[in-house]
Amino acid sequence: MTSIQSTVFMALQTNDDTRPIIEALQRDNPDAVVHRLPAMVKIDAPGRLVLKRSTVEEILGTDWDLQSINLNLISLSGNVDESEDEMILHWNR
After folding, report:
1. How far is CA 55 from the centre of its chain?
2. How confident is the model at residue 4, as a pLDDT?
3. Nearest-5° angle of CA 55, CA 84, CA 73?
4. Architecture of the domain delimited by 7-90
5. Model pTM?
6. How far apart are CA 79 and CA 15, in angstroms?
7. Helix (H) or strand (E) holding 21
8. Measured between alpha carbons, how far is residue 63 from residues 33, 44, 49, 58, 59 in Å?
9. For residue 92, what is the enclosing H or E element?
10. Residue 55, CB half-sphere, CA atoms under 13 Å: how many?
11. Which residues contact 21 (CB under 8 A, 6 or more apart)?
12. CA torsion sign, 43 to 16 to 54 to 24?
């Protein structure tokens, strides 16, 4: 039986606050595809997309609150599992 992976995505506003988030998503999700549009960036990933607070902090060089992503989040697709340390988008099987 062949397993089909559904795509999850996160869409963010294009601004200075989201650049380190997008970079972190690319680092931690090598299969993710980034679509850059004039006012937003959409990141698609097969099956699962992980945003790690520690990766964003490494890029910024300072502490970062994962909840602050909500200020620039336009849309997402997938089930969300969230803690203080990471946000994971995935589809339940």
Report:
1. 11
2. 55
3. 70
4. Alpha-Beta Complex (3.90)
5. 0.90
6. 25
7. helix 19-28
8. 27, 26, 22, 9, 10
9. none
10. 16
11. 12, 51, 56, 69, 72
12. positive
Q: Which of 62, 61, 1, 49 is nearest to 22 (CA)?
A: 49
Both tokens assigned to 83: 């803690």
What pLDDT, in 10s, does the model give residues 51-68? 999 999 999 999 999 999
61: left (phi over 0), alpha (psi -120 to 50) or beta: left
State the Cα–Cα distance between residues 75 and 80, nearest whole angstrom.
12
Count, residues in the chain? 93
Domain ranges of the chain: 7-90
